[in-house]
């Protein structure tokens, strides 16, 4: 599962634009558009609203001069910036079909003057998170309206993952995003730079159970009022381990009370360890508790 909402993007509209994909087993793709407008915050707002008003929202609105990034809807659902190809709903082709409207004009390829920044890298990170390769499977983009018809291929669109221009989509007649530089596009988000920083590996703290505490609890708790505890912190660890062993039912709340249910469960553990008779009395001994700890990740302080 890839990224659905790009955390760096501002939300646009009500967050709902399309629906489920029609061919989720086909590879993911991204489609580049230009808004045929100016850039800057006023355009971002006005064009952003306009796309909602005509029901033609992409997933992403991007200002190539300010690196401003907006998102209309979840990446794993369809957007609405493409026309259907007959009965083929091009907006819903592929595992994802991430559509990006760049505030620019096809006649002036934005990669010639843009200033991509961290938000562009975030966008590319999200696109790549769906396994969309850094390739343009349809080949050349259109450099003018007149040559766009030659750039569309149904089979390629149906079967190949990667990046497309609106000019490459069957059933459509636009030539955006113009002849942008593919090399520049991908180079602006070098692969390593878009990998989210891995979360710090946390050193697991090994819990310690005090044997004498557990024994004291096992002797005292069953005589207390229901749920009464003596050494709840130690007992909770033992109960969690017994649960993990399937000896305490999953629905049992590890409450830290070493009551009759826990006694019964521990007896079962002792029998599993080979004890029987009075040696399997439900009161932990050093060796059985150490065995449980070795298996379920706690240490025993004896
Ligand atoms: Zn377009």
Task: Explain what this protein looks like in three dimensions.
This protein has 8 helices and 8 strands. The chain has helices at 41-53, 118-128, 154-159, 182-187, 211-220, 232-244, 260-272, 286-296; strands spanning 10-11, 29-34, 60-63, 68-71, 97-102, 162-165, 207-210, 298-301. α5 (211-220) crosses α6 (232-244) and α6 crosses α8. The mean pLDDT is 94. Bound molecules: zinc ion. The site of zinc ion (ZN) has 5 residues, from loops.
Keywords:
302 residues, 8 helices, 8 strands, elongated, binds zinc ion
Report a brief summary of the structure:
The chain is built from eight helices and eight strands, in the order E-E-H-E-E-E-H-H-E-H-E-H-H-H-H-E. The protein is α/β, with parallel strands linked by helices. A hairpin with a 4-residue loop joins strand 3 and strand 4.
The helix/strand class is alpha/beta
**Secondary-structure element sequence?**
EEHEEEHHEHEHHHHE
The beta-strand count equals 8
Contiguous uncertain segments of 5+ residues: none
In total, the number of domains comes to 2
- Strand order, main sheet: write it out: 1-4-3-5-2-6
Q: Bound small molecules, which ones?
A: zinc ion
Integer-rounded radius of gyration: 30 Å
Whole-number mean pLDDT? 94
Tell me the span between the first and last alpha carbons: 46 Å
CATH superfamily of the largest domain: Peptidoglycan recognition protein-like
- Global morphology: elongated
Tally the helices: 8
* Helix proportion range: 25-40%
Please describe the topology of this protein.
Blueprint: E1 10-11, E2 29-34, H1 41-53, E3 60-63, E4 68-71, E5 97-102, H2 118-128, H3 154-159, E6 162-165, H4 182-187, E7 207-210, H5 211-220, H6 232-244, H7 260-272, H8 286-296, E8 298-301
Parallel strand pairs: 1-4, 2-5, 2-6, 3-5, 7-8
Antiparallel strand pairs: 3-4
Helix pairs in contact: 5-6, 6-8
Bound molecules: zinc ion.
Residues 33, 81, 166, 174, 176 line the site of zinc ion.
């Amino acid at each position: 599962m890839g990224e659905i909402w790009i955390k760096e993007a501002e939300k646009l509209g009500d967050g709902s634009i399309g629906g489920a994909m029609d061919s989720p087993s086909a590879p993911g793709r991204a489609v580049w558009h230009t808004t045929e407008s100016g850039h800057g915050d006023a355009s971002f707002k006005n064009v952003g609203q306009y796309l909602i008003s005509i029901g033609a929202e992409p997933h992403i609105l991007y200002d190539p001069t300010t690196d401003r990034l907006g998102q209309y809807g979840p990446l794993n659902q369809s957007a609405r910036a493409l026309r259907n190809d007959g009965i083929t709903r091009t907006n819903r082709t592929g595992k994802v079909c991430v559509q990006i409207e760049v505030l620019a004009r096809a006649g002036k390829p934005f990669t010639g003057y843009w200033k991509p920044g961290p938000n562009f890298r975030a966008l590319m990170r999200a696109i790549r998170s769906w396994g969309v390769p850094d390739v343009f499977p349809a080949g050349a983009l259109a450099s003018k309206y007149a040559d766009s018809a030659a750039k569309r291929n149904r089979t390629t669109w149906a079967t190949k993952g990667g990046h497309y221009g609106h000019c490459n989509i069957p059933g459509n007649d636009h030539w955006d995003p113009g002849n942008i530089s593919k090399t520049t596009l991908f180079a602006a988000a070098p692969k390593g730079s878009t990998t989210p920083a891995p979360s710090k590996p946390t050193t697991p703290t090994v819990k310690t159970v005090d044997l004498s505490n557990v024994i004291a609890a096992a002797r005292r708790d069953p005589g207390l009022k229901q749920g009464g505890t003596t050494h709840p912190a130690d007992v909770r660890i033992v109960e969690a381990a017994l649960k993990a062993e399937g000896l305490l039912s999953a629905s049992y709340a590890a409450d830290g009370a070493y009551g009759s249910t826990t006694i019964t469960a521990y007896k079962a553990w002792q029998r599993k360890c080979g004890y029987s008779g009075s040696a399997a009395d439900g009161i932990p001994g050093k060796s059985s508790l150490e065995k449980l700890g070795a298996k379920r990740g706690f240490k025993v302080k004896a």
